[in-house]
Amino acid sequence: MARENNITISDVAAMSGVSIATISRILNNKGNVKEETRKKVMAVIQSVDTNGTLLSKFKKQNGNLIIAVVTNDANPLISPFINGVNTCANSKGFHVLQYNCFNNAYDRIEFEYMIKELPVAGFIFQQIVGGSELTDFIAARFPTVVSFEQYQTENISSVGIDDYAAVKSAVEYLITLGRKKIALLNGDLSMPFTVRREQGFLDALKQAGIPVCPEYITHISVSDFNYNLARNAARQILSMPDPPDAFFAITDTFAAAVLKEAKHLGISVPQDLAIIGFDNTDVSTMTDPAITTVNQPCYEIGYQSCNILIDKINDPSLASRQVWVNSEFIVRDSTQ
Amino acid sequence: MARENNITISDVAAMSGVSIATISRILNNKGNVKEETRKKVMAVIQSVDTNGTLLSKFKKQNGNLIIAVVTNDANPLISPFINGVNTCANSKGFHVLQYNCFNNAYDRIEFEYMIKELPVAGFIFQQIVGGSELTDFIAARFPTVVSFEQYQTENISSVGIDDYAAVKSAVEYLITLGRKKIALLNGDLSMPFTVRREQGFLDALKQAGIPVCPEYITHISVSDFNYNLARNAARQILSMPDPPDAFFAITDTFAAAVLKEAKHLGISVPQDLAIIGFDNTDVSTMTDPAITTVNQPCYEIGYQSCNILIDKINDPSLASRQVWVNSEFIVRDSTQ
């Protein structure tokens, strides 16, 4: 009977045959529910929620004003993103606190503490940091949004760019420049966005009739997403007997690593090697040449993520949503 | 009588003539206090703490396990720093949550909410983000550490490098290379660390008998600490009829901005212009040439900040401390 401690509104819906929206109205005392339905639902809850966990969660809900943002702080997009979340949250009377999943690993004790002791109303995840097991666990209990992703389930909304199309367009641009030996420096495929970006890369090549060279594709563990690993990976690929003439890198930092290694090896950029990064961080304009990249509207992603989260907090009956925002391709000297 | 709501242990100490350490022992029921003293202190508290604010704060203290870290997320040192804080906190049963002061401005409502509603045991500030008014306000109520600073008051401990000596040594190194026209790109002087770094700069010149050229010194508002502003500032100085032959920049990002503008103006680095940055972030190795810089041990600063904070939480009678950690000067190609 361990399940009793983790009873959710979805369980009650399944057992009573009453919709989640109606159960929410009952627990929030919002009226518009037949007395017969109310009695049926409360009977189910009393039979399974013996610890009162579900009820106390709902009783506390009106006072739950914290939006917990789960991030991997190593990501330079976080600052404008959190600023967007804050702006939206504060305008609606919510408060934002940030929890860092270092190396994308989460500490279960931390989350149990947060859920039990703090008046958290909802969660925003930067991508699925901590892994899908964590986001699913949280989403079964709290309104949840995943940002910088298109990751939708029954319980999870998301806000992000079209990663597939953004990468496909960027690679098509390289092809129009006459490049045919195109390498990819990607994160590992444990994250939905890395999978979609890789698919965009592969489809661009396929549609142009360019065979994929598996040796040109490298995956760096997302738990170890750093500049030095990217330099090692770039050095290996650029040192091949038949090196690529273009590189698509999953972040500007990785693109800077490719550029650095190309210079060390005497490879001219962009003449012998075109390089495209991702994110339009300051790094992409600091290097010489500056790096062609894809801009994500981080502030807007943060603002919209918070906005749909608060809608869901205020009305748990709302279905999950998938919000797409526009990315922008920025051509600089690394691909001329 | 508005003051009654903000009564602090310091007020009780002043009014009762009993030390803060003793009052802490009384409120924490730690014994070793004469009954006569205890009665005197409790009488003072009962007369001034009519709302019970002080008492309820102390009663809750054993359950207060959150360490709130107040940061300005735009700073690239934050990730390893928070990692250090987390590691120490988790090993001692505390939980870390982060609050962002964007543009170094804080929202009073946010802090009032945090203090009132969350079981916060202590605060760590990244420098004095939010301003000294905020740190002083918090430090009067909670154990408080300021990190990346030497900022000590009766209530505030700090953990940081010796900013003065680090900058003085770096500028002395430029002088040994034969540079005499040395520019400074600093933050504004609202922060203790920018003041100390500027003093190190000025003293290095003074001791070498090099006159200070005020036109070579620029201050960028710390509320607007960004790459593009630094580029504008660097462009102005490098376009002077008699430009500098060396630049000390307060961050690697600013040093990268100086390098970028030098290249645009056809100034060779390091031949015509030597450049030194600060922080040893990835940026300092991404540029070409790589930038000479000063490393701060961010993880260690985070770990030690949390460690002395928890000591103080566990024993409020401890005096504030000033912990110095070692910086490291790293010579790269921008100053050969």
From TrEMBL, chains A, B:
UniProt xrefs under Pfam families: LacI, Peripla_BP_3
Xref: InterPro entries: Cro/C1-type_HTH, HTH_LacI, LacI/GalR-like_sensor, Lambda_DNA-bd_dom_sf, Peripla_BP_I
UniProt GO MF annotations: DNA-binding transcription factor activity; transcription cis-regulatory region binding
Ranges for domain HTH cro/C1-type: 4-51
Domain HTH lacI-type: 7-46
Keywords in alphabetical order: DNA-binding, Transcription, Transcription regulation
Coiled-coil positions: none
Protein name per UniProt: LacI family DNA-binding transcriptional regulator
Record organism: Christensenella massiliensis
